Amino acid sequence: MLLLPLQLLLIFLSVVSHGASVDGANASIAVTYVVDLNGSGQYKTIQEAINAVPDNNDKWYQILVKRGLYREKVKIPPAKPFILLEGEGSQSTIIEWSDYATNGLFELGESHAIPNFNTETSATFTVQADNFVAKYITFKNGYNLGGQKQPMTQAVAAVVNGDMASFYNCGFVGVQDTLFDGNGRHYYRDCYIEGAMDFIFGFAKTVFERCHLHSTAGDWGGGYLTAQGRGSDSDTGGYVFKYCIVTGTGPTYLGRAWGSHARVVFYKSQFNVSIAPVGWDAWNEKDTVNTLFFTEQDCFGQGSDKSHRVSWERTLSGIDVSLFAGDFNEGRLWIIQQP
Q: Which family, according to the similarity comment (predicted)?
């Protein structure tokens, strides 16, 4: 059927008004809220602005967060999709809290600890909704930062559990379990991620591109960049680090297996840190190392010497390189439709 110009215009306006993309174009913003600690915006806290977004909305809501240190725990529940959270710079807009998991800490004399806090509930920031974007903002868990040297335990800066979540020029700062990259398809670009122990962990299908990973493992006698939890061969999850840089202190393992089919790929990344010579740790999967998928491809820098790596580290085939260096998390299908 031949469409008249007026019909074409109506179809175009209908698509744009619902936040979808046209011919690969980014979605438009329907509503903008401004958050400012000093009161110049509609809200003084980030959580207030999130609460104001209608449940089950299908349009993109932009929450502009002015520079400042926002001392609050922030949570985006599943019913709040299509949120763009944007700061004024990762060094200028910071969300910080200092909760931590308390399992076993009472035995160590931590009488001030909050009972029943676990890994996930310790998070400063949590997003459970689908279709989320963050830009120019830092998420920080202050527990054990600044030389405090309290007992090591989980203290999460951010939990990312929604599908189709992307982060640009963001910071994630903590010590243990900094970034819980939980479930769904995720994309991190030009982000800074700091920690010592398992500081990127979870089950998601994620690409980290041109990110800066900074290890503080030397302050704790050693540590791990990743703890990926893929549990079966049919599980589509895994972490791919493309064109990243790793700095800091070691010895630092590239990762340890949190699941029987854990999958982590470093591709054309620079290791400017003391990587543990063996590179990887099977952890609780020592009897099933043949199902683990840990590998480095075309990496360089002082920590890139693979001559003493574990014997079960994978070697990528041409097909593998095409998959992991390409569109591993189907990002071209959903990232271009985000604002």
A: Belongs to the pectinesterase family.
